Amino acid sequence: MRSTRLAVLTLAALAAMQMGAAGQQTEPSARADTSACDGAPDAGFTDTSNSVHKPRIDCVAWRGVTTGKTETTYGPGDPLKRGQVATFTVRSLTARGVELPTPSRDYFTDDQGGTHEANTNILAEAGILDTSTTSYEPESPSTRSFMARVTAGALAFGGVQLPTAPPDYYTDDSGDPNELAINQITDLGIVTGKGGGVYAPGETLTRGQMATFLARELAALVEEGRIDGIGHSGTSDDVWMQNVPMDVIAMVDWSHSGSGHFSVVYYDDQGGYGDLVANETGEASGRSPVNFAGDGPASTWEISADGAFQLTIVGMGDARVLGTSISGSTPDVVDGSAAAGQVLEATHSGTGHFSVVAHTRSGGYGDLLYNETGQYQGAALVPSDAVWLVVDADGPWTLTIRQQ
Description:
Helix content is 21%, strand content 24%. It is α+β, with helices and mostly antiparallel strands. The protein has three domains: 11-224, no CATH class; 228-316, Jelly Rolls (Sandwich); 319-404, Jelly Rolls. Strands 9-11-16-13-14 form a five-stranded mixed sheet, with no helix packed on it. Strands 1-8-3-6 form a four-stranded antiparallel sheet, with no helix packed on it. A hairpin with a 5-residue loop joins strand 4 and strand 5 (273-281). Helix 3 crosses helix 8, helix 4 (82-96) packs across helix 5 and helix 4 (82-96) packs parallel to helix 6. The two termini are 44 Å apart.
């Protein structure tokens, strides 16, 4: 189990933070949470109808991150305690399918026997909480600064790449020990501040605000994080019963070392056809999308093989990233967000099928960019909302953003 530590705030990192035009603070924008929250039912809390956080409260209740203060009340305006932050964070990572470590020791002396002790130790073991002191203060109110640190740490542990030099979004967090984390989660769209370049790092976090933090955190983990410990192997035809966590978009790495036919099809939780993941002959390997374009949730996997095979489900954070150019020789799923709205040039030197399909960040269908057979060279315009590029190929291929 890897342990991802928060980046240390350095003068160099602060100096690298970019300012907006004419020295003005960059205006933050919120991340859409549809990939984690779409379809969330009303949680049934009677005290959230007037809260701006209600949709995210319903979402985190649906995902099992919170159960409310009672069956019918949530307390959106109530202050959040540091101990509760630990428990909510553990639940959000667990909901996403992130494998958390078993604590090797008891890290804090002031949470003994407390409701949240087990979870503070889990986050400490994972490197998400500061362990330079033995005091955690679980009953103290959580500040917005502290929540930013924990959120950034949870995202990093979950496989989300934190920006190393984000813009300096706020004027009131200079010198705050968590300034880098505040700007990192703002750059990822987790928070947008209170307006006018104000973040209010020392202000106590409310339960309603916590729901928004966590709903967008879940969306980031869904779209950019990793999934741990989900795989299956065999040597002949098989059926694998495995739901993809949270029924969201992911990828599956597959390989086969036999000489005959190899195919993988997944079906949804109602037995309906989902998608054909692989359809090859002989030795083959590749990466294919899971639950894209509404083809899910993946639940039952039917494998046809005449030799050793391996399937491994991975999160979108493991996708290779298209900078200006990327190449491969097998099917792949690429983070092509840099190509959105750009002209994308493609080459293929295989003898069989070659296609590239653009999808939105939530996995929705965008456009079929290429659909060819054999050797190919050409260009296509990528939709402005495209993020994921799904490549099917049987030989060497390249994707390059045309330089204007």
